[in-house]
Structures are given as C-alpha cells and as structure tokens.
Predict the 3D structure of the following.
Amino acid sequence: MTRRYHIVTFGCQMNRADSERMAGVLEDLGWEATADENQADLILYNTCTIRDNAEQKVYSYLGRQAKRKHQNPGLTLVVAGCVAQQEGERLLRRVPELDAVMGPQYANRLGDILAQVEQGQQVVATEAIDILEDITKPRRDSRVTAWVNVIYGCNEHCTYCVVPQVRGKEQSRQPEAIKQEIIGLAEQGYKEITLLGQNIDAYGRDLGTRPDGRYRVTLTDLLYFIHEVPGIERIRFVTSHPRYFTERLIQACAALPKVCEHFHIPFQSGDNEILRRMQRGYTREKYCQIIDKIRHYLPDAAISADAIVGFPGETEAQFERTLDLVAQIGFDQLNTAAYSPRPGTPAATWDGQVPEEVKQDRLQRLNHLVAQVAAQRSQRYQGRVEEILIEGFNPKDATQGMGRTRTNRLTFVAGETQVGRLVPVQITEVRAFSLTGVPVVCLSRAGQVG
C-alpha cells in the first residue's frame, strides 16, 4: 500500500531547502507526496521561530492534526525545524500526539528517526551534532533552480535572534562536495543554483587556515571553484552579513559572468545605537560603504535587505534614521518586520519594549516607503531587454511564462511557455516588485537587441 506524506514549510530559504532534503529522504523510503494533508499518512511541519506569529500558526495546525490522529492512530506527526529545536520535549508535553520532534541539523537523518517511531518510540532529536556530508537527494520543488547548502548554523550573537540556538554552530561543507552536488544538478538539467547559508559570508572560517594566516577557502574562492560547471547558467548566494562582506567578493561577482547582479544584505536598522544594541558588528556608515562599492563595480546591481522596526528602546528619531537609509540606498526589495521577542534572546528581557501599536504604525510607514522606492527602482527596466530564466507559469495566466531577471526581479513573459529557457525579453510594464514583457529575437550580454 502506498504511504503518502505532506510537508508544510514555514520561514526562510534554509527551511525550504531542508524540506526538499526531507522530502528526498521520504521518497527514497517509498513515500509519495500528496498536496492534501487529509490524505497524508505522515504530516511534517518544518517550523520557523524567528517571529512569534509563525510559531503560533504551527500550534494551530498541530491542534487540528492532533484531533485527526485520535480518529486515525496510524497517522505520523513530525515537527522539524527551529520551533522543534527551541521547544524540544516541551512540544511533546503540549502536543502529546506528536511522534517526533527534530531540530534542523537532523534533516538528513529523518529516515533513522522514522525507524525509531515505527518501533513505537516517541523521538526528540535536538542534541547538538556535527552535520555529516549529506548524501540524500532532495526532492526539488523546481526543475530549473535549486538551493545548495554550503554552510549550516550561525556563530553570530545578535541580541534579537534565536537562530544560533536552534541551528547550532557554523559548519561549512567541503568545496569538493559542493561542486559535485552542483555537477549533479547540471546533469539533471538545472540552470540556476543559489548557494545557501544563514550567514554565507562566513563560509570556510571553520575549514582551516593557510600558512600566511588567511582562511584556506572563502566564499569568494568557492565562487571561482564552481563557476565553470558546465550547464549551470546562473549562480546566486544568500544571506550575506555586512560584517564579513568584502571588496574581494564584490570584485569576484563582477568578474564571473554566471554570478547574478543581486545582493541580499540585511541592515536591520539605520541607527548606529540600535545596531550596537543588536550586536550587529557594523555601523550605518560601514553598510553604506559596502553598497557604494557594489555600485562602483556593478552599477545596475539590485540590493535587497531585511529591516526590523520597534526594537527595544527604539525612539521615533531612531526609526526615522531607518526610513532615511531606505530612501538613501534605494533598495529594490526590503523584507520588513516588527520586532518580536524570542525566548532565550537578551533583547526579549530588556526594558523599553515598544508598544505593539507603535511597532505596527512604524511598520506600515516603512512598508509604504519601501513600495515607493521599489517602484522608482523598477522604472529603469522600462523598455529594456532583460535575460529571463523561465521557471514556470504565471499562476493567474497560464499563457505567460514566469521567471526572474539576473537582478532577481520577478517577470511575466507573454507567450513564453518553455520552462528552463533563457529568454531575451523586452520589458513592457513595470510595477514595484514585478515586470511584464515579450520575447525578442536575441540578446547580447550587454542587454542590446541584436
């Protein structure tokens, strides 16, 4: 009899990549995916604890499935990811119907955990472990683009962030193993890869040093090492930390044609005192210098970032410095959030917690500015020819292909339905966060119609 599984993923790219790996484990074990959770014999929630509302949503989902399990004792319920790591056995006490609770570092050990569950055990797997080289084959959600984990964990100590507690210490994969995974993806027909890490600029810091004291391998070195893999047309990487972002890395991005002109570098606040209290390790001025260097080497590059409003003690003047930075930089996209106190983080216990209504007012004002700035940035695409990698179809119009520019702008392409193609597209409509265009005959690297 076919066993069916259903995975619900919350949160960041790391979680989406982990879900693909766990789906790959399940399919190797003979399970079959289903989009209907009510038809599933195993439901896995891959959770996020960055924001309280994401955590509460998980408990809401679990309550519904716990009731279902009383009617169907054979249903297997698993909570993976950051909430699992944070809560551990407390999750079992709150939801005793759970079969397994497993932290992010156990994603490629799901098969072993399920074997214990089938023996009648209730499993909690949250102990810190060294992550073994992953030989599982992820079940990719795309046939065109793929995540490639290059570093796990985080050694930073931002006072608002729970990630180091739930994802563990930084552990870099060996460059040879990463390259072999990318070669395998190219052989399967993938065209674009995104190198993934919670703090990707830290890649290689745990892989040893050279006689001169330099790290043996860095993210810059890795980009050069993987660049010539045949079949891969585009390379991206996320998420960058301003503390470690170097001019040498920017120069490599400008020199390597496959590396896309898009940088995601969270700044979190435009005020230096808030940055100091967040323990971010840089100043507003340092952040602006990084952006200036990017635009020196890659003038058309897109910059995206993350920002938090309402951090404990944030004054109106300090918030306005964040608004000022957004206007000054001109971000193509900005992920925004109101500060959410997380268990076990220093800032959660500080005095000066900003009232919720103030946080929501600031978030609304920031989002309004973000949309304005993004719309202004989008105007540069009007009438241009952009190279679009077709990843799928417009969910609202199946006659339009859907893909992204090299600068990561979502683009709908009229009449183009061949997934996996790199298509030169004349941009005919621009919006704050997306474009529409029509295919043209050919495109040179400089973006001119030939």
